[in-house]
Design a protein that fits this description.
By secondary structure, the chain is of the alpha+beta class. The chain has 11 helices and 10 strands. The structure holds adenosine-5'-diphosphate and magnesium ion.
């Protein structure tokens, strides 16, 4: 099978919303009046972002999910995406699985595949997504205010538990592993929550490298500090109760685990009720974990409210 047959067979479908989709030199998109385009790109490299043993279907899901997560963090509605693939060889089994995972998620969010690039080479996946958001309403990292509450969506740290099991560093009961593995291989982009938070959240980011690191980006961009309460964080590890891990380990994975694809965001304390409602509307659990302070940096309080000494650091590709 040649390059163009491959594209036709696995990656070409009529675009539902684009003016022009796959097949020409460019795709064409007509932005709606009053909307801004939100654009983001994410690359997945074998060995770095996924294990070689992952199923192609899960990989198709994850490649798009991590990109949709960036749109969610900006409060944007997904519209379309571009897919660039380097493949070692034409493996139809792999392509069928990968495209199935990809299309399933794309359909769920009404997101058109409108173009890309296909080349031979070491397995490497890159997706660029495009979403739309009413002009001026995108959620940014720079808007957190002193006194704001800090929230996270869903659960944190479970993807890391799965990774540690894969690495042979941890052993857990099979059902616990299967649930954690789903979190690692099939993250749920919090697209509905992101949009529900427009006009409520003062800042937002998605958690890809770990809560500490991604919240730090908000603090830096907003020129503020934060206090986080361990007592509120402890329950965020979904598998925490079954595993009965030492508190320090649970906190480490919750704060630095990475690969969570949840949202961290801030909102004025006066809007607590509305934030709760946004979570209900989006069918996404939302937990208040602390608040924004003057100054800079992040203080972690233990369950007695005393500052907790720790050496937690989030993931950094070049550290
Ligand atoms: P060009 O040579 O102009 O870069 P190509 O010949 O590589 O374009 O691609 C032909 C068409 O197929 C283009 O519309 C391109 O966007 C699309 N395309 C190529 N690879 C993919 C892919 N993996 N997924 C979706 N569309 C793709
Ligand atoms: Mg061309």
């Amino acid at each position: 099978m040649g390059e163009f047959d491959l594209i036709d067979r696995y990656f070409k479908r009529p675009a539902a919303q684009a003016v022009l989709g796959v097949g020409d030199d460019c795709a064409l998109w007509a932005p709606r009046a009053g909307m801004q385009l939100a654009l983001s790109t994410d690359m997945l490299v074998e060995g770095r972002h996924f294990l070689s043993t992952v199923s192609p279907e899960a990989l198709g899901h994850k490649a798009l999910a991590v990109n949709l997560s960036d749109l969610a963090a900006c409060g944007a509605k997904p519209c379309a995406f571009l897919l660039s693939l380097a493949l070692p060889r034409v493996d139809e089994n792999w392509l069928a699985g990968f495209s199935k995972g990809l299309w399933t998620l794309a359909d769920q969010f009404h997101c058109d595949l409108i173009g890309g690039d296909t080349t031979q080479g070491p397995l490497n996946l890159n997706i660029t997504v495009m979403g739309e958001v009413p002009a001026g309403q995108a959620l940014l990292r720079s808007g957190a205010q002193v006194g704001d509450d800090i929230y996270v969506s869903g659960h944190l740290g479970d993807a890391r538990v799965a990774l540690e099991v894969f690495r042979g560093n941890l052993s857990v009961p099979t059902p616990v592993f299967e649930a954690a593995r789903l979190r690692m291989e099939r993250p749920t982009p919090r697209v509905a929550l992101g949009q529900a938070l427009r006009g409520l959240a003062t800042s937002a980011a998605d958690i890809s490298d770990g809560l500490l690191g991604d919240l730090s980006h908000i603090l830096k961009a907003s020129h503020v500090g934060a206090v986080l309460e361990a007592a509120r964080l402890m329950h965020l590890l979904a598998c925490g109760e079954e595993l009965a891990l030492p508190m320090q380990d649970q906190l480490r994975w919750i704060l630095t685990g990475g690969d969570d694809y949840e949202l961290v965001f801030t909102a004025p304390a006066a809007l607590r009720e509305q934030v709760t409602q946004a979570g209900v509307l989006a069918q996404t659990p939302v937990t208040c974990i602390g608040h924004i302070t003057n100054g800079s940096g992040l203080t972690l309080l233990d369950t007695e409210g005393q500052p907790l000494a720790h050496d937690f650091v989030s993931f950094d590709h070049f550290a």
